[in-house]
Amino acid sequence: MTPRLSLETNQQQLKQLADAVSCPCIFDAPLAEHSSWQIGGPADLLLQPENADHVASVVRFANNRRIPLIVIGQGTNLLFDDAGLRGIVLKLGHNLSRIAISNHRITAEAGAWVPGLARKAMQAGLSGLEHTIGIPGTIGGLVLMNGGSQRKGIGDNVRRVWIVDPEGRLLELSREECSFSYRQSALQGTGAVVVKVELECEREQPQRIRRTMLEDLRERRCKFPRKEPNCGSVFLSTSEMHASVGPPGKIIEGAGLKGMRVGNAEVSQQHANFIVNRNGATSEDVLGLIAHIRQVVHEKIGFELCCEVRYVSPDGEILPAHRANI
Ligand SMILES: Cc1cc2nc3c(=O)[nH]c(=O)nc-3n(C[C@H](O)[C@H](O)[C@H](O)COP(=O)(O)OP(=O)(O)OC[C@H]3O[C@@H](n4cnc5c(N)ncnc54)[C@H](O)[C@@H]3O)c2cc1C
User: Fold this and answer.
1) What is the pLDDT of residues 53-82, one digit of tens each?
2) What is the pTM of this model?
3) Which of 74, 80, 213, 281 can pair with 277 through a Cys bridge, CB separation 3.0 to 4.6 Å?
4) Is residue 296 one of the residues assigned to a domain?
5) Residue 136 · residue 76 · CB < 8 Å
């Protein structure tokens, strides 16, 4: 995200930043508490901005001083390193989560929690977000990942996105400029911070929307592990893959890897595309297990599995977890 001079960040500069921006900040923030995998060492500084101006100030500060900066929502698609992060985490959560509805359009700040947003749309009789009801992240993270379920993506409903660019400027982008495709958007890897989103929905009876959402939640409860910490689907599942070799969960199960363990990371017994933390797993355990699954699947069917889950290195690089160096 940021050009870097070294892994060392200057504690004095971070204190200066914390004093300058009037938003909640935590020094030496344990990242395990900000990831649904519950894995990760301390970040030098974690800030929770309350408006786009806070975001812009932090981005400008970090970039001018070449301090690594990452943006997170709920950390439901992220594997932090056991060594943590030598830099700044900008966490967009409940401090930046206002939602407004006008006719068939919804405007949501980036930190809005996706299931809460989907429920608000249902109450207003707006259809289109039913498939997101069980996704536990923020709308900012969902837009960046073009996340969704039932082979849909949130990009289908996006009308406009407001970002803070790496220079700290607030820009408005159209859906076309975001170039959404399966679990991808043009925003990925650019250093853009999504601060607000406008979604377009269709009118429908709330009862019908509610029924669809309840079905989705019921199916998830049966299929996905619920008790052990996890980050959702680990490997990408594209349409081409479905047509040729099938979904990743089936492939991994077919390769005899259900229940396979490295340290305290385990391929879920319930759904083989989930890796669960069996109490005290490390990032090394998870990366080791990912590497092992990819190797076995490649040997058995000659297919290269790619990760949907992102790994965050101690110097702030975010990349698909299978590309992490271990
Ligand atoms: C139990 C479970 C079920 C899941 N089911 C699904 C599913 O059905 N479909 C699906 O698509 N995903 C699913 N996920 C994965 C995850 O919830 C989504 O990818 C979600 O959109 C990530 O949101 P987040 O706020 O947690 O983002 P994070 O995990 O915090 O971040 C993910 C990526 O987005 C970036 N990011 C986050 N917020 C912003 C922002 N405001 N601006 C710029 N970049 C940002 C981060 O830098 C990172 O690269 C599931 C996860 C879990 C734990």
Assistant:
1) 999 999 999 999 999 999 999 999 999 999
2) 0.94
3) 281
4) yes
5) yes
Same domain, yes or no, for 136 and 42?
Answer: no
Q: Hey, which residues are catalytic here?
A: 183, 233, 308
Cα gap 187→281, rounded to integer Å: 31
Q: What percent of the chain has pLDDT over 70?
A: 97
Tell me, yes or no, whether 1 lies in a domain: no
Say if ligand 1 is within 6 A of residue 144 CB.
yes
CATH number (domain holding residue 105): 3.30.465.10
Q: Is residue 214 part of a domain?
A: no
Ligand 1 pocket residue status of 163, Cβ below 6 Å: no
Cα–ligand 1 centroid distance for 106 (angstroms): 20
321 SS3 class: helix
259 & 193 share domain: no
The percentage of residues in the chain with a pLDDT greater than 90, rounded to a whole number, is 88
pLDDT in tens, 86-109: 999 999 999 999 999 999 999 999
* pLDDT over threshold 50, residue 252: yes
Q: What distance in Å separates the CA atoms of residue 58 and residue 102, rounded to the nearest whole number?
A: 31
Q: Which of 76, 142, 158 to mutate to test the pocket of ligand 1 (most atoms within 8 A of CB)?
A: 76
Residue 212 lies in a domain: no
SS3 57: helix
What is the whole-number distance in angstroms between the Cα of residue 138 and the centre of ligand 1? 7
Please, what is the Cα angle at 213 between 211 and 216, to 5 degrees?
110
If asked whether residues 80 and 154 sit together in one domain, one would say: no
Angle at 312 between CA 297 and CA 240, to 5 degrees: 35
Residues 131 and 61 in one domain: no
Q: If you measure from the C-alpha of residue 157 to the centroid of ligand 1, how many angstroms do you get, rounded to a whole number?
A: 17
Considering its fold, how many domains does the chain have in total?
3
93 Cα: distance to centroid of ligand 1 (angstroms): 12
Q: Determine whether the shortest distance from the Cβ of 141 to ligand 1 is under 6 A.
A: yes
- Is 63 close to ligand 1, i.e. is its CB under 6 Å away? no
